[in-house]
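Before relying on records like the one below, remember that each one covers exactly one chain. Contacts with other chains, cofactors or solvent are not represented anywhere in the record.
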Amino acid sequence: MKKTGLRNTNILVLAAFMTALSVVIGWVCKTYLTFGDGSVRVTFENTPVILAGIWLGPVVGAVVGAASDVVSALLSGYSINPIITVGAASVGLASGLVFRLFKGGKDMAKIASSVFTAHTLGSVAIKSYGLYLYGYAVIMQVRIPLYIGIALAETYIIYILYKNKGVSSQVERMLRK
């Protein structure tokens, strides 16, 4: 019987790597845009979470998103906001589900749909609500165009990684074992 999901050691290792990569990107590669009484963090920390959803499936993508958020909060000294953690998990879940729903079609359309759905649900809707409930100023007029830009950039990055023969062959090799 073939082990699937997080019972497969290779998938577990790849999920842990994606979690660590998300934490490092969120920690090192970020900037803040300040507008009036609020600010918005610009980062590409969701890229590994979306890749986990696409490559490893929606459940593993959700686990990677939730784990990334919890580890980032603990390392930053923030308390864990369960709504934002659900939003992070939904990024991985939605990207994996949408990618699986596209049985045929162009890879760019599948990836773009996965990325935009993940950000619309997880980043714009759920995480914004979580920030609002915890008393942070949420400037939707800034968050929406910001995440459109981030989603465009992530779509291109993920498409390049997905189509790269070296990367895809290594992922397939790990998933076969």
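Strands lie at 30-35, 38-43.
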